[in-house]
Structures are given as structure tokens and as C-alpha cells.
Amino acid sequence: MSSAPDQTVSSRYMARLSKAGIGSHNNITTDRNLFGFGGVESIENVMVDETTAKEAMPYVPSDINNTAYLPFSSGTTGMPKAVEISHSNVISMTEEGGQVDFGDGSESITRQTTFI
């Protein structure tokens, strides 16, 4: 039997540690029939864990070097551990993302990092 905590316990632990709500947000935007979306301009999906959302503290960044988000390890050796990613790091990742062209270059998509 694994000594790693189950996902629900880990998720709530991470939310309390970071003082953030748990959720995920995906947004795909296209103006063409890219990957069979049939011309849909925006697809948006938001999922929130109601328990941690009630405990979440609103966050207003005041410094580019402040923490933007906390990715966590899988926690295979115990409780998950966080790494602080600053707003400056996010900007750098986004600037490096750029455009990816498909085929003859008539269609492109912007790469982006995923974060909560």
C-alpha cells in the first residue's frame, strides 16, 4: 500500500498551505476551424473546489517578484511540496511561448503556460 496521501487530502493541504482556492481554468481561442472546433471562437471551462474556495484569500499582486502561483510536487514521499513561481517568471514563460505555426503557416496558435 502506498504511503502517499490520497488526492483529496493532498489538494486541500496544498490549498491551505498556499491560502488559495483549488480550481482549474482552460481557455482555447481560435478564429478558424482549428482541430475540428468548427469555428468556435472561445471554449472556456472553470472548475472550483467549493470547500477551498470559501477559505481562499483574494490576491492582488503588488510586486513583479511576488509569488504568482505554486506548482506542487506529486507528493510521492509524503505531503506535496510547493515551488514559488513569481509574476516575473510567468511573464518570461509567456514571452518565450510565442506563436506556433501549423502546415503552411496560414493557421497559428499561441502557446501558453497553465497555472491556477
TrEMBL record:
Entry superkingdom: Eukaryota
Pfam families per UniProt: AMP-binding
Family matches, as InterPro entries: AMP-binding_CS (IPR020845), AMP-dep_synth/lig_dom (IPR000873), ANL_N_sf (IPR042099)
Name recorded for this polypeptide: Related to 4-coumarate--CoA ligase
A molecular function GO annotation: ligase activity
SUPFAM superfamilies: Acetyl-CoA synthetase-like
Gene3D superfamilies in UniProt: N-terminal domain of ligase-like
Keywords from the named record: Ligase
Domain AMP-dependent synthetase/ligase: residue ranges: 55-96
PROSITE patterns linked to this entry: AMP_BINDING (PS00455)
Extent of the signal sequence: none
